[in-house]
């Protein structure tokens, strides 16, 4: 109290004060009556809304300070399909969320192994217990823990591959349509069918693959003047446009993952040693390759020719 300023005020109460509402801030007319205005702060204090606001603020600052052409609506409405929920899939999903992508679907039929949490950023030891949870569902659950506003879906499904037997009950499974597809699987043959489907549907397709101390990040699928652009647009003068081929409609197309193959894809995992059945790679390569794949997609979305 010794540090406080204490005073007394003597107020004279006017006659009939109970019948009149004082002319003070906070009272508003409602159907002819002066009533207090109530404001609910529940929405502004909701953790999910706060997380969305904080995530969007970073992107808005990027657009304000350094990248005025950044199209945030194109990113937030983009629907991405990730084939493979392993080391690359986990990293790509997190990078997409950081760029404002909210619609992510992961496809994988594997289970989380004891060696996975150290290399795959969306899994913990709890996901490995009791035989391991399915990677697709565990990854989606983790994404929602990280960012509750993400619209993520996990599909437990095997990808038919050349040289691998396919059960009759699996032949009816079909992938949903998405705007962009990431090929992030371990084997080369697992990318064969998705590549053909993406080429047929004219979808932007991103490939990321790892070696021990090397990696590949590649874009294929739809090229300039695809279905999203007018085929009568002015032809680009870049060397990439000059090297591209035309489809039946005269539109420029890019090569697919297997265009330069001379050997058909076969089973590369059966009857192989452990190091040949999985990706033995330097730990730092997966984040680098994943980041480059996502940055490449963002660059494509902002290209003048689409």
Automatic annotation (TrEMBL):
GO molecular function terms listed in the Swiss-Prot or TrEMBL record: Atg12 activating enzyme activity; Atg8 activating enzyme activity
Domain THIF-type NAD/FAD binding fold: 62-303
InterPro entries assigned to the protein according to its UniProt record, in alphabetical order: ThiF/MoeB/HesA, ThiF_NAD_FAD-bd, Ubiquitin-activating_enz
Source organism, top-level taxon: Eukaryota
Signal peptide residue numbers: none
GO BP of this protein: autophagosome assembly; autophagy of mitochondrion; cellular response to nitrogen starvation; piecemeal microautophagy of the nucleus; protein modification by small protein conjugation
Gene Ontology cellular-component terms listed: phagophore assembly site
Name of the molecule in the record: Autophagy protein 7
Source organism: Pisum sativum (Garden pea)
């Amino acid at each position: 109290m010794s540090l406080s300023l204490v005073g007394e005020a003597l107020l004279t109460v006017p006659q009939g004060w109970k019948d009149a509402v004082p002319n003070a801030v906070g009272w508003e007319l409602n159907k002819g009556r002066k009533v207090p205005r109530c404001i609910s702060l529940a929405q502004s204090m909701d953790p999910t809304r706060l997380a969305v606001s904080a995530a969007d603020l970073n992107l808005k600052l990027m657009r304000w300070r350094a990248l005025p052409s950044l199209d945030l609506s194109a990113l937030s409405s983009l629907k991405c399909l990730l084939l493979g929920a392993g080391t690359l899939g986990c990293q790509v999903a997190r990078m997409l969320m950081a760029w404002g992508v909210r619609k992510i679907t992961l496809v994988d039929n594997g289970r989380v192994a004891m060696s996975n949490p150290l290399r795959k950023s969306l899994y913990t030891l709890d996901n490995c217990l009791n035989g391991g949870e399915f990677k697709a569902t565990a990854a989606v659950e983790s994404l929602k823990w990280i960012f509750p506003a993400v619209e993520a879906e996990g599909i437990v499904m095997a990808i038919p591959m050349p040289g691998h037997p396919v059960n009759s009950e699996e032949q009816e499974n079909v992938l949903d349509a998405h705007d962009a597809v990431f090929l992030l699987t371990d084997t080369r043959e697992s990318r064969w069918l998705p590549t053909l489907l993406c080429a047929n549907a004219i979808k932007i397709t991103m490939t990321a693959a790892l070696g021990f101390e090397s990696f590949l990040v590649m874009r294929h699928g739809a090229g300039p003047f695809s279905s999203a652009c007018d085929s009568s647009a002015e032809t680009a003068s870049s060397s990439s446009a000059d090297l591209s081929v035309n489809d039946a409609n005269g539109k420029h197309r890019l090569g697919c993952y297997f265009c330069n193959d001379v050997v058909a894809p076969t089973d590369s995992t059966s009857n192989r040693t452990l190091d040949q059945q999985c990706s033995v790679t330097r730990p730092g390569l997966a984040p680098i390759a994943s980041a480059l794949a996502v940055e490449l997609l963002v660059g494509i979305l902002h290209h003048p020719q689409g």
